[in-house]
Design a protein that fits this description.
10 helices, 79% helix
Length: 250
Protein backbone atom coordinates (compact mmCIF):
# COMPACT_ATOMS: atom_id res chain seq x y z
CA UNK A 1 0.00 0.00 0.00
CA UNK A 2 2.92 2.37 0.70
CA UNK A 3 3.81 2.74 -2.97
CA UNK A 4 0.31 4.01 -3.57
CA UNK A 5 0.37 6.78 -0.96
CA UNK A 6 0.22 9.34 -3.78
CA UNK A 7 -3.49 8.49 -3.90
CA UNK A 8 -3.94 10.37 -0.62
CA UNK A 9 -3.10 13.82 -2.05
CA UNK A 10 -5.00 12.97 -5.22
CA UNK A 11 -8.06 12.20 -3.14
CA UNK A 12 -7.54 15.38 -1.12
CA UNK A 13 -7.35 17.65 -4.17
CA UNK A 14 -10.34 15.90 -5.72
CA UNK A 15 -12.20 16.24 -2.43
CA UNK A 16 -11.55 19.98 -2.17
CA UNK A 17 -12.66 20.66 -5.74
CA UNK A 18 -15.50 18.17 -5.55
CA UNK A 19 -16.88 19.74 -2.40
CA UNK A 20 -16.69 23.28 -3.74
CA UNK A 21 -18.36 22.56 -7.09
CA UNK A 22 -20.65 19.76 -5.88
CA UNK A 23 -19.34 17.01 -8.16
CA UNK A 24 -17.77 14.64 -5.65
CA UNK A 25 -14.26 14.77 -7.10
CA UNK A 26 -14.77 12.09 -9.73
CA UNK A 27 -13.96 14.49 -12.54
CA UNK A 28 -10.44 14.67 -11.07
CA UNK A 29 -9.89 11.09 -9.90
CA UNK A 30 -11.20 9.22 -12.95
CA UNK A 31 -9.23 11.13 -15.61
CA UNK A 32 -6.01 10.90 -13.56
CA UNK A 33 -6.32 7.16 -12.92
CA UNK A 34 -7.37 6.48 -16.52
CA UNK A 35 -4.51 8.53 -17.91
CA UNK A 36 -2.07 6.64 -15.67
CA UNK A 37 -3.20 3.32 -17.12
CA UNK A 38 -5.74 2.03 -14.62
CA UNK A 39 -8.65 0.15 -16.15
CA UNK A 40 -11.80 2.22 -16.40
CA UNK A 41 -13.69 -0.17 -14.12
CA UNK A 42 -11.07 0.20 -11.37
CA UNK A 43 -10.94 3.95 -11.92
CA UNK A 44 -14.72 4.29 -11.74
CA UNK A 45 -15.20 2.07 -8.71
CA UNK A 46 -12.30 3.67 -6.81
CA UNK A 47 -13.63 7.12 -7.63
CA UNK A 48 -17.04 6.22 -6.24
CA UNK A 49 -15.48 5.26 -2.91
CA UNK A 50 -13.75 8.66 -2.86
CA UNK A 51 -16.97 10.39 -3.90
CA UNK A 52 -18.87 8.74 -1.04
CA UNK A 53 -16.24 9.71 1.52
CA UNK A 54 -16.14 13.24 0.13
CA UNK A 55 -19.93 13.56 0.17
CA UNK A 56 -20.15 12.48 3.81
CA UNK A 57 -17.57 15.05 4.94
CA UNK A 58 -19.02 17.80 2.77
CA UNK A 59 -22.61 17.11 3.82
CA UNK A 60 -21.68 17.41 7.49
CA UNK A 61 -20.06 20.79 6.88
CA UNK A 62 -22.82 22.06 4.59
CA UNK A 63 -25.47 20.95 7.08
CA UNK A 64 -23.90 23.24 9.67
CA UNK A 65 -24.00 26.06 7.12
CA UNK A 66 -27.71 25.30 6.46
CA UNK A 67 -27.19 25.12 2.70
CA UNK A 68 -28.72 21.68 2.02
CA UNK A 69 -32.24 21.26 0.60
CA UNK A 70 -32.94 17.95 2.36
CA UNK A 71 -36.31 17.06 0.87
CA UNK A 72 -35.10 17.64 -2.68
CA UNK A 73 -31.77 15.91 -2.06
CA UNK A 74 -33.39 12.78 -0.67
CA UNK A 75 -35.80 12.52 -3.59
CA UNK A 76 -33.15 12.91 -6.27
CA UNK A 77 -30.73 10.63 -4.43
CA UNK A 78 -33.21 7.76 -4.14
CA UNK A 79 -34.29 8.18 -7.77
CA UNK A 80 -30.69 7.74 -8.94
CA UNK A 81 -30.11 4.34 -7.29
CA UNK A 82 -31.61 2.09 -10.05
CA UNK A 83 -29.48 3.91 -12.61
CA UNK A 84 -26.29 3.38 -10.62
CA UNK A 85 -26.86 -0.38 -10.60
CA UNK A 86 -27.35 -0.42 -14.37
CA UNK A 87 -24.29 1.76 -14.87
CA UNK A 88 -22.07 -0.66 -12.97
CA UNK A 89 -23.20 -3.54 -15.15
CA UNK A 90 -22.59 -1.81 -18.47
CA UNK A 91 -19.25 -0.28 -17.46
CA UNK A 92 -17.41 -3.54 -18.07
CA UNK A 93 -18.65 -3.64 -21.66
CA UNK A 94 -16.95 -0.43 -22.81
CA UNK A 95 -13.44 -0.33 -24.28
CA UNK A 96 -10.89 2.06 -22.67
CA UNK A 97 -10.83 4.39 -25.69
CA UNK A 98 -14.59 4.48 -25.94
CA UNK A 99 -14.84 5.18 -22.22
CA UNK A 100 -12.52 8.18 -22.54
CA UNK A 101 -14.38 9.60 -25.51
CA UNK A 102 -17.80 9.18 -23.91
CA UNK A 103 -16.58 10.64 -20.65
CA UNK A 104 -15.11 13.64 -22.47
CA UNK A 105 -18.38 14.26 -24.30
CA UNK A 106 -20.35 14.13 -21.06
CA UNK A 107 -17.99 16.59 -19.40
CA UNK A 108 -18.06 19.11 -22.24
CA UNK A 109 -21.84 18.89 -22.71
CA UNK A 110 -22.42 19.53 -19.01
CA UNK A 111 -20.01 22.46 -18.95
CA UNK A 112 -21.51 24.11 -22.03
CA UNK A 113 -25.04 23.66 -20.75
CA UNK A 114 -24.23 25.23 -17.41
CA UNK A 115 -22.23 28.08 -18.94
CA UNK A 116 -24.71 29.02 -21.68
CA UNK A 117 -27.67 28.95 -19.31
CA UNK A 118 -25.97 30.74 -16.43
CA UNK A 119 -28.34 33.71 -16.56
CA UNK A 120 -31.55 31.66 -16.78
CA UNK A 121 -32.03 30.57 -13.19
CA UNK A 122 -35.60 30.23 -11.93
CA UNK A 123 -36.64 32.60 -9.15
CA UNK A 124 -38.59 29.87 -7.40
CA UNK A 125 -37.33 26.67 -5.82
CA UNK A 126 -40.79 25.07 -5.72
CA UNK A 127 -40.77 21.52 -7.05
CA UNK A 128 -44.00 20.90 -8.98
CA UNK A 129 -45.29 17.46 -9.93
CA UNK A 130 -44.20 18.02 -13.53
CA UNK A 131 -40.68 19.02 -12.54
CA UNK A 132 -40.46 16.06 -10.16
CA UNK A 133 -41.53 13.68 -12.93
CA UNK A 134 -38.92 15.05 -15.29
CA UNK A 135 -36.34 14.99 -12.52
CA UNK A 136 -37.06 11.30 -11.95
CA UNK A 137 -35.95 10.43 -15.47
CA UNK A 138 -32.96 12.74 -15.28
CA UNK A 139 -31.97 11.25 -11.91
CA UNK A 140 -32.05 7.74 -13.34
CA UNK A 141 -29.84 8.86 -16.24
CA UNK A 142 -27.54 10.64 -13.79
CA UNK A 143 -27.30 7.42 -11.79
CA UNK A 144 -26.19 5.51 -14.89
CA UNK A 145 -23.51 8.12 -15.62
CA UNK A 146 -22.53 8.19 -11.97
CA UNK A 147 -21.76 4.50 -11.76
CA UNK A 148 -20.49 4.07 -15.31
CA UNK A 149 -17.99 6.93 -15.11
CA UNK A 150 -17.45 7.02 -11.35
CA UNK A 151 -18.31 10.72 -11.13
CA UNK A 152 -21.09 10.55 -8.56
CA UNK A 153 -23.65 12.23 -10.81
CA UNK A 154 -23.07 15.78 -9.65
CA UNK A 155 -22.38 16.90 -13.21
CA UNK A 156 -26.06 16.26 -13.93
CA UNK A 157 -27.59 17.10 -10.56
CA UNK A 158 -25.98 20.52 -10.11
CA UNK A 159 -27.24 21.93 -13.45
CA UNK A 160 -30.61 20.26 -12.87
CA UNK A 161 -31.09 21.98 -9.53
CA UNK A 162 -29.80 25.35 -10.74
CA UNK A 163 -31.52 25.51 -14.12
CA UNK A 164 -34.49 23.20 -13.81
CA UNK A 165 -35.54 23.71 -10.21
CA UNK A 166 -34.17 27.16 -9.55
CA UNK A 167 -32.15 26.97 -6.35
CA UNK A 168 -28.98 29.01 -5.93
CA UNK A 169 -25.58 27.73 -7.00
CA UNK A 170 -24.30 27.46 -3.45
CA UNK A 171 -27.37 25.54 -2.30
CA UNK A 172 -27.21 23.31 -5.38
CA UNK A 173 -23.57 22.35 -4.79
CA UNK A 174 -24.32 21.61 -1.13
CA UNK A 175 -27.45 19.58 -1.88
CA UNK A 176 -25.55 17.71 -4.57
CA UNK A 177 -23.27 16.30 -1.89
CA UNK A 178 -26.26 14.81 -0.08
CA UNK A 179 -27.45 13.24 -3.36
CA UNK A 180 -23.97 11.85 -3.98
CA UNK A 181 -24.15 9.93 -0.71
CA UNK A 182 -26.90 7.81 -2.27
CA UNK A 183 -25.63 7.55 -5.85
CA UNK A 184 -22.00 6.87 -4.93
CA UNK A 185 -22.89 4.39 -2.17
CA UNK A 186 -25.16 2.31 -4.40
CA UNK A 187 -22.67 2.53 -7.25
CA UNK A 188 -19.68 1.40 -5.22
CA UNK A 189 -21.68 -1.51 -3.77
CA UNK A 190 -22.68 -2.62 -7.26
CA UNK A 191 -19.12 -2.34 -8.55
CA UNK A 192 -17.80 -4.26 -5.54
CA UNK A 193 -20.27 -7.10 -6.07
CA UNK A 194 -19.15 -7.27 -9.71
CA UNK A 195 -15.50 -7.52 -8.66
CA UNK A 196 -14.44 -4.15 -10.10
CA UNK A 197 -13.18 -2.56 -6.89
CA UNK A 198 -9.61 -2.42 -5.61
CA UNK A 199 -10.13 -1.70 -1.93
CA UNK A 200 -6.55 -0.55 -1.24
CA UNK A 201 -6.90 2.21 -3.84
CA UNK A 202 -10.39 3.00 -2.61
CA UNK A 203 -9.27 3.35 1.01
CA UNK A 204 -6.46 5.80 0.26
CA UNK A 205 -8.58 7.89 -2.08
CA UNK A 206 -11.41 7.86 0.41
CA UNK A 207 -9.23 9.13 3.27
CA UNK A 208 -7.87 11.95 1.13
CA UNK A 209 -11.30 12.85 -0.23
CA UNK A 210 -12.81 12.99 3.26
CA UNK A 211 -10.21 15.51 4.41
CA UNK A 212 -10.59 17.44 1.17
CA UNK A 213 -14.35 17.55 1.60
CA UNK A 214 -14.04 19.23 4.98
CA UNK A 215 -11.60 21.81 3.64
CA UNK A 216 -13.55 22.47 0.44
CA UNK A 217 -16.81 23.07 2.28
CA UNK A 218 -15.15 25.73 4.41
CA UNK A 219 -13.45 27.42 1.45
CA UNK A 220 -16.69 27.57 -0.50
CA UNK A 221 -18.24 29.93 2.04
CA UNK A 222 -16.10 32.83 0.81
CA UNK A 223 -16.43 32.10 -2.92
CA UNK A 224 -18.83 34.02 -5.12
CA UNK A 225 -21.34 32.01 -7.16
CA UNK A 226 -19.84 33.17 -10.45
CA UNK A 227 -16.45 31.93 -9.29
CA UNK A 228 -17.96 28.51 -8.62
CA UNK A 229 -19.45 28.43 -12.13
CA UNK A 230 -16.12 29.29 -13.72
CA UNK A 231 -14.33 26.68 -11.62
CA UNK A 232 -16.80 24.01 -12.71
CA UNK A 233 -16.21 24.73 -16.40
CA UNK A 234 -12.42 25.03 -16.14
CA UNK A 235 -12.01 21.71 -14.34
CA UNK A 236 -14.45 19.91 -16.63
CA UNK A 237 -12.91 21.20 -19.88
CA UNK A 238 -9.35 20.44 -18.78
CA UNK A 239 -10.28 16.85 -17.96
CA UNK A 240 -12.23 16.40 -21.20
CA UNK A 241 -9.41 17.66 -23.43
CA UNK A 242 -6.88 15.33 -21.84
CA UNK A 243 -9.19 12.34 -22.21
CA UNK A 244 -9.75 13.07 -25.91
CA UNK A 245 -6.00 13.32 -26.50
CA UNK A 246 -5.34 10.00 -24.78
CA UNK A 247 -8.18 8.28 -26.65
CA UNK A 248 -6.78 9.44 -30.01
CA UNK A 249 -3.24 8.40 -29.15
CA UNK A 250 -4.21 4.93 -27.85
Amino acid sequence: MFENLWLLPLGFVAGVLGSIIGLGGGIVVVPVLTILGFSHTVASSSSLFAAFSNSVASSVSYAKQKRIEYKLGLKLGLMSIPGTILGAFISSEASPSMFKILFGIVLIASCLYLFLKRNMESKSANVTAKILAISSGISFFAGVLSSFFGIGGGIIFVPLMILGIGISVKHATATSQLILMFSSASGMIAHSLLGHADFSYALLLGIGAFAGGLVGARISVDLKENSIRIMICVVILAAAIKLFIDAIES
